[in-house]
Every structure is written in structure tokens, then in C-alpha cells.
Amino acid sequence: xxxFLRLVAENLKERWGADLSRVTVVFPGKRAGLFLSxxxxxxxxxxxxxxxxxxxxxxxxxxxxxxxxxxxxxxTTLYRLYQELLPEERRGEETIDxxxxxxxxxxTSRTSTSIWWTPTNCFSTPRTSTS
Length: 131
Fold this sequence. Notes:
By secondary structure, the chain is mainly alpha-helical. The chain has 2 domains: about 5-65, no CATH class; about 70-115, no CATH class. Helix content is about 55%, strand content about 5%. The chain contains 5 helices and 2 strands; from the N terminus they run αβαβααα. A two-stranded parallel sheet has the order 1-2. β1, α2 (about 30-45) and β2 (about 50-55) form a beta-alpha-beta unit. The radius of gyration is 21 Å and the shape is elongated.
């Protein structure tokens, strides 16, 4: 039985030939691109220009035109806002050291949730081979 990535590699080769430089493949993370490259190599008997690989996070950043704050800035900003929202007598009970772990989780969860709630009509029609 062929793996999913083997089927994708065969489909890409069939549709685009040896020049995949105009193809962008979107994965949930970056690691899968390595495995797809291996599959493309396995189904090709000639040198192949590799496609571009992007993660879903990178795709959404490119489409939105926004930049992502570095993790330190994001967590410290979230901590500051959290402290401002607390009643005055409770401020300072939660140190930034104790807040840090769940602050990172909260920001990561928010990013993932934003991606999955994005309307699908924000994407253009997929490009097809011209050959």
C-alpha cells in the first residue's frame, strides 16, 4: 500500500514534471516537507526542482500581511494585560515566572484557534497545471 506522501509525490510529478519550483505545498508543520522531498526523489528518475514548503502558520501570516511578535514580547505583554485586568488587591500574586508556562500555552492555543476559524473564502481558487 502506498503512503499518502508517495501518492502526493506521484501526483506532483504527473502534473508538473521535473520542475516543481512553481509549486507550493502547505503542511501543518515544517517537518513533513523533508519526507515529501524523499518521496519525490524516490518516484523520479531524473533531477527534480523541489517545491516550496510552507507551514499553515506561515501561509496565514503571508495572507494576512501581519507579523508575529517574538515569544518573549508576546508573553510579557499578555502578563502585563492580565495584571491590569486583575482587581488591584490581587495584582502581583501571580509572578511572571509562574505565569510564563500557561501564558505560552494560551498564546499557542489562540493562534491555532484563529487559524481553524478563518473563513475558507479568503483563499483563491487553486492553481492547476498549464500543461
